[in-house]
Amino acid sequence: MSNASLRRLAEAAGISIEWTDAFNHPKTVSDDTLRAVLAALGLPAENDAACAQSLASLAGGADGWPLPPLVTARVDAPIVFDDHAALRGQDYAIELEGGGRIDGRLGDEAPLQLAVIAAPGYHRMRIAGHALTLAVAPPRCYSVQDAAAALNRADAHAPRLWGIATQLYSLPRPGDAGIGDFGALADFVKQAGLRGASAVAISPVHAMFSDDLQRFSPYGPSTRVLFNVLHIDLDAVLGVDALRAVLAEDGLGEEAARLEGNAMIDWPASSNWKLKVLRRLYQRFIDAGGSAEFDAFRHDGGDSVEDHARFETMHAWRRAQGENGDWRSWPEEYRDSRGPAIAAFANAHADEVRFHAFLQWQAARGLQHAQDCARAAGMAIGIISDLAVGADPAGSQAWSRQDQMIHGLSVGAPPDVLGPMGQNWGLGAFSPVALKRHGYGAYIEMLRSAFRHAGGVRIDHVLGLTRLWLVPDGFPATEGAYLRFPFDDLVRLIALESWRHRAVVIGEDLGTIPQGFPERLAAERMLGIRVMFFQRDWHGYIAPQHWSPDAMATTTTHDLPTVAGWWAGRDIGWRAQLNMLGEHGNEERERGERDRDRHALWQAMRAAGCLGWREHEGPPPPEHAPVDEAIAFVGKTAAPLAMIPVEDLLALPEAPNLPGTIDQHPNWRRRMPQAAASIFDAAEVANRIHLLNAAREGKPA
Fold this sequence. Notes:
Among the domains are: 76-137; 160-389, TIM Barrel (Alpha-Beta Barrel), CATH 3.20.20. It is of the alpha/beta class. The chain has 23 helices and 24 strands. Helix 5 runs parallel beside helix 12 (350-376) and helix 8 packs antiparallel against helix 9.
């Protein structure tokens, strides 16, 4: 076959054949990778004839209808249909979401455009006997400035808010059996708010697999639409007395105390214990007659709740038969989430389906309570939820929304600073073509879940709004390709949901960044993320006042070393121990570079006035990290929001995660050394918060 026909098809499908890596080296995708990616997209490319046929299918419309079921637009901007000549001269009617109607007629010549719509919302349009949705977005997302203005803050025009990032599972609380819960989060946000925090960013709380307790990475969920039931606050289900009665049975209380005392989370044991207690609380709830509130939750949750509850039930049932539970290996009739076989199964297992719906109700209540506590404590933003970049292809979301997903490709990242050997995260992704064909239904459903109980959303790997690195099954992470996504449509929907929920948006834009992408985020009022360790130019570390005002500032992230760990080179030690320094890596050389980096950062801290009484000292040794100074340094930045991980407030040396590892490093298992309610009581933490408040207010420490 000709290389030209393969390339034409790849370009038409949105695959970037040529790209530039994080080290500024030009790269070209191999023909084998192109064919594998195209096959996964449903576009056969094994020969010239297949390429021609696939190219023709891309160019064709859906059933002869020229418009997709949903079209995005901006308020007060023309909606142009020039690509759809069949609509010339057609009358249309638009029913506005908030009431009212617009009638009009498309002209016979370009530009074919509708009357300008001033009201944001999901409006219904009828034209030529067909109906579609017009998703008309505000000009930009709800911003930190908007959140500050809503509280009538004096600095709303140029806010300098701060917050704390925490791994929810790591927050201890008496009686939690080793897994941080929404009750611990409520305790934490109350104390943070009292000390001046405007936000608390948490790790993802997406639903996992309740019958496969070995899966616990918050970034590898079963679905991004529902919630992790292991974070349910048991005290809040039926009250303390009911819980006490349950814990008196079968030594459950003693087991909880043992699990709570573990230095590392024993996810399988703690999860199994918690689900056992939740089943007993659920049975008490049912025996007492249930509640109208639960019935309303289940009704309002519709397909989202019902699909996941059915998946959880079927997944556990198949595993009980000795199978692996992966829906892709189920009998054909069970792979259809809307089919009669699944409906019959759900009817036969109605109580189990109801149990999983009950768990989702409790999780949603707990998360909302924590957000209510944050707002009551005076936070301008409150909880910032985390929207993971993908979900497990064997999970609930891929099963129930499979017609909008790509199968046979995994999300990852090409080799870069964070992962010199490339990364394959084993996560499924939406299909850009299928999303458009289905009116972005699964995407909107997911956004609403992320925004519903929060004051902000962090979008993991926000680069995926414009392109995703996808690795074909069986290929190494280095042999993937970038697939383009409809950025304009996706960000308009984010802006619309952001304003509907009055929630800010933060995009995790670390990695191989396309040219101009930070500017596009800024125009949407989506904050990027700037990490202290990476804020450098050829002069050295960038002075705080020169950091971007369009990004959140932070000392570090969950995928990077803490300040204490970076200063000591713990990350280098881990990667050397696990043979992860890369093809040309050398531990001694990296430690030498880190020593130079420490000196350079110390000089930047001195120039920024962060050293105080240590003004005339040299940088401290590796074992004595300048955590206070680092927090003050980030606090002085021009960012509208500075975020400090709780690990840095406590000067902990170990990071929550080491990218590229699964079992070799204790990822997502570390517990904080103090209970959530008392973390802020330590004198050194109080001093760091004082330094942070002073830096944000522009005062000397």
